[in-house]
Structures are given as C-alpha cells and as structure tokens.
Amino acid sequence: MLKKSAAFDLLHSAAAKRILVLDGAMGTEIQTLRLDEAAFRGARFADWPQDLKGNNDLLSLTRPDDIRAIHVDYLEAGADIVETNTFSSTTIAQADYGMEALAYELNFESAKLARQACDIVSAKTPERPRFVAGAIGPTNRTASISPDVNNPGFRAVSFDDLRIAYAEATRGLIDGGADIILVETIFDTLNAKAALFAIDEVFEEKGLRLPVMISGTITDLSGRTLSGQTAEAFWYSVRHSDPMSIGLNCALGAKEMRAHVADLSRIAQTLVCAYPNAGLPNEFGEYDESPEHMARLVGEFAASGLVNIVGGCCGTTPAHIKAIAEAVADKAPRKLPDVPRLMRLSGLEPFVLTPEIKFVNVGERTNVTGSARFRKLIKEGDYATALDVARQQVESGAQIIDINMDEGLLDFGSRHGHLPQPRCRRAGHCPRSGHDRQLEVDRHRGWPEMRPGQADRQLDLAQGRRRGFHRPGEARAPLWCGRRRHGV
C-alpha cells in the first residue's frame, strides 16, 4: 500500500463541508493578452525553426509572469483548485512544434507557477488551502480509432507510446509541486487508461500516491464520447483506478451537460466534478454565455445535489468562476450514493449483472485457444477479418465478449491492442491471459481479469449452453471474471 499525500485528507475534509471550485479556461485568458509570434518565442526560442504561436503551454517558459497572474486571478475569484498550463505538454502533442524534448520541463515549470500562485493567495487566507491540479490532456492522437478509413485496424499511436508520454508528464507535474493529477477532456477512453496506467507507475516509482481526478468529454448531443461510450459506460471503464473524482468537461455548455452529470451522480461512489463551457460556440467559435447565466445553470447542479466540484472550461473567465463560486457557496455538496455491489462491465454501452438477469450471453469465439479460425487470423495479422468474428458474436446476441490471446507464440500485448472495434465494442469485454504482464495491462485498461480455465461459467454461443455451471432455472451466483468479481 503506497503512502498517500497530505492532499487526500485536506481535499476530502474540504469537500465534505462545501462544493469545491475549479478554475476556468487558461486559453481564454491567454487570448486576451493578444500575444504575437515573438512573445511566444521569447529570447530562448527566438531562432526556433518552427512557428510557435498557439503553443500556449510554452508560455510557462517564455511568459511565466503572465501564466502565474492568470492563476492568481482565478484563485482570487474563488477557485480552490487551479489547473496547470499543461494541456498539451506531452511529447506526443509537442511534436507538432518539434519540442518533444521539453515535455518534462513544461510540466515541471507549469506546476511550479501554479504552486506559487496558490501559495500567494493562501498566505492571505491560510484557513482555506488551495490546490494545484496537474492537467494531462488527451493528446492529438487516438488509440482506439483508426485515422485511415481503409484500414480500421491501424493506429497512429500505441498504448505504450501514450503510457511513456503520460508518465514523463506526470513526473514533471509531481516534481513541480502538483497536489492532484487531473486527466481531462477525455474523448478516447483507451487514451485515458494509458494515462491512468502511467500515473500508477509513477506513483510506484515515487512511493507516494496523489489524488486523481478524471474528466471525460461528451462530444455532442448524442450523449457519447468520441470513441462512442455513454457517460455510464465511461465510468465503468475507469472506476478501477479509484479516482478522487469523476466528471465531465468541455464540448457542451451547462444546459447540455446536465443530464450526463446526473447519470454520473447517480452511479459514482466518488466525488462528481463538472466544468462545462460557457455555452455552445457561436458561428465565430466564440462563447457568449454570461457569467450570471452560467452561474444560474451550474448553481442548479448544486441545488439538485449532483456535484461536489464545479468550474469552467472553454470561454470561461475569472468573472465566470466568481459568479459560480457565489452561486454554490450556500449549497450542500452531493452525498455519495449507496451503490450495490454488482459486476459492471462496459463496451460502448454499460452492462450491469443484476439479480433480475437470469441468463448472460458471452461470446467466446474471439479465443486463440478455443477457435482455430480466430487463432489463424490473429497469427496472420488479419485483424479486419478477426474483428468480424467479434462483430458476429455481438450481432448474434452476445452481451459480453471474452477475448483470449493466451497462446505461447503470440505477442499478446500488440494483439490485444487491435481489439475490439466500434461495432463489437458495445458489448462488455473480459480479456484473458496467462501472462502476468498482460493481466496487469488489462487491469489498468479497466478489463476484469480472467485466468486460463476460468471461463467455465460462461455461455458458449456456438454451442448454446452453459458449460459446467447451472442448468436453466437453477439458482445462480454472479458471473465471476478472474481472481475477483469485477465491480467489488
């Protein structure tokens, strides 16, 4: 058991008494500075061979006073937590500017600036501590969607690429003084799982665990993330990481976000955070929602008992945060729900095994030891046809897909990375492997563990029967996957 940082007790103590306030948009405030290319470059990068205007994270190195001042403005407006200026401070995102080598420094210096701002304001009101949330953005790559419509199995980035990049960012944030690690604006859950895996690895390295906040993004009125998950399915995908908070930010205004925040509030046994945009963008890409109007909407979140942490995303300013802080000041924080212990899986849709469900269809043809055809396709690298096997299972009624890559001659890690695809992702997934390393990766991806020989309680769709468990009509125990029941 790793030692927990002092921030755990301070944050939970504060959150038990009142709704905490997160800051607003860094980019919106940077735009008001109207900086030109020379200002972004500063003296240090005057001769950099690529254009740097728009690389807001770089301003932590070239305009540190401006970034610190923005943090102070938000804190004085009423924020308890400020996010570091590191949304794009990974080697992957900084590659657009040829600045991959600066990733650690960007995170370290940005965390220092936020820490300094918190210390400045906390010195005036020592009875109210302020916190630095080390912000980790989604990068400009997606691990679960192919950018090539002609090759659905292709990925522009791998799980390990992301894991390495996120780990470097996390080290910089912790070393710079972050109290919290915030994985935010998640449009692809697999990217987020790589981040959570990396964060855990860094915690192990340092022998210290910090609170983790997770914030997804419902990309439009469909009510799903870009990779296709509902808010409930998203939570079930990341709940294994035991975050301090789960929530939503960006893409939507408070009005459009409310229903999805309510979904999370109903099922999450942790704090719920919401920091919407200042409405939806107008035809010029700008945000018109006034501080007063947004505060009324977010204040209703609080009055309805939906949230523990609130703030603002795109288009919000210190004026918005001041109005929001005032709107929630007299509201009680959300109480954590009493959620029953059940197996909760996720594909694009959630799957909860309740006592009322008497029969579960589990597709087992995506199994290299049980299906000669599937094994041949995987060994030959014919992932598109292999995905058809999974798709057929779902179309035949599978509620859960059992993915087994446990075969001695397979590079199990890379094979798992190609499954599953959107059409078959709507079912829950139970990957299996005899390799300890793969089980560790799968656990951090949020998949329940399943050792070889533990599929005896599943329905084989090909044979249409329960194997070695119960006859129809008999009393049945919950479906178990691996050494522990998922969801306990």
Pick out its properties.
globular; single chain; 8-stranded parallel sheet; disordered C terminus; alpha/beta; TIM Barrel; 17 strands; 18 helices; 488 residues
Short description:
The chain has helices spanning 7-17, 26-32, 37-41, 59-62, 64-77, 91-94, 103-124, 159-176, 189-206, 231-238, 254-267, 291-303, 318-328, 372-379, 383-395, 412-416, 422-425, 436-444; strands at residues 3-4, 20-21, 81-83, 131-136, 180-186, 208-209, 212-216, 245-253, 271-277, 309-310, 343-346, 350-353, 362-363, 400-401, 428-429, 459-460, 465-466. The protein is α/β, with parallel strands linked by helices and 488 residues long. It has 2 domains: 3-328, TIM Barrel (Alpha-Beta Barrel), CATH 3.20.20; 343-466, Dihydropteroate synthase-like (TIM Barrel), CATH 3.20.20.
Describe the protein:
- With 488 residues, the protein is of the alpha/beta class.
- The protein has two domains: 3-328, TIM Barrel, CATH 3.20.20.330; 343-466, TIM Barrel (Alpha-Beta Barrel).
- The protein has helices spanning 7-17, 26-32, 37-41, 59-62, 64-77, 91-94, 103-124, 159-176, 189-206, 231-238, 254-267, 291-303, 318-328, 372-379, 383-395, 412-416, 422-425, 436-444; strands spanning 3-4, 20-21, 81-83, 131-136, 180-186, 208-209, 212-216, 245-253, 271-277, 309-310, 343-346, 350-353, 362-363, 400-401, 428-429, 459-460, 465-466.
- Helix 5 (64-77) crosses helix 7, helix 5 packs parallel to helix 13 (318-328) and helix 7 runs parallel beside helix 8.
- The longest helix has 22 residues, at 103-124.
